[in-house]
Amino acid sequence: MNNRGCSAIPDSERSSDSTVTIVQVRGRSFDSENLDVVHIEKNVFDNVANTVMDVIGKRKDNVSARRDLKMYCNRRSLNLKEEKCGATTKLIMPKALYVLTKEERVVVCSWIRQLRFPHGYASDLI
User: Is 61 within 8 Å of 51 (Cβ atoms)?
Assistant: First the structure.
């Protein structure tokens, strides 16, 4: 197993007629035929775009990620802040430097709206 938690299943455990490489990721097995690169690219792009555009409910920058960040990185500006509200305490997540402001989001969206692609290349972009 490599440092990413992935390992290829040895030939002795595969059937002799198997031409598909089976990869094991964190204890789960995947056929290489089932890993669709287009969908993986789309998921990565969607996650990055939703995080940078600060889409609530779809971004990957959440309380759990911020707690992990505090444990593994020295980024005090991104640590969760506690704010007292009467008898309760609220957790405040400061905006990260990579999150676009509203004006920057408007510029990006208007630029995307102006893009032209050949028919069928970017059907769900807008």
Answer: yes
Which pTM was predicted?
A: 0.56
Can you give the pLDDT at residue 107? 95
Residue 5 or residue 25, greater confidence:
25
Which stretches within 7-126 are classed as H helix? 37-52, 63-72, 102-114
Asked whether the beta carbons of 29 and 5 are under 8 A apart, the reply is no
Provide the pairing of β-strand 6-8 with 22-25. Answer: antiparallel
8 A C-beta contact, residue 83 and residue 90: yes
71-106 confidence digits (pLDDT tens): 888 888 888 888 888 888 888 888 888 899 999 999
Quote the tokens at residue 71.
Answer: 């444990």
Other CB atoms within a 10 A radius of the CB of residue 66 amount to: 19
Full strand arrangement of the beta sheet holding 28-31: 6-8, 22-25, 28-31
Question: Cα 27 vs. chain centroid, distance in angstroms?
Answer: 21
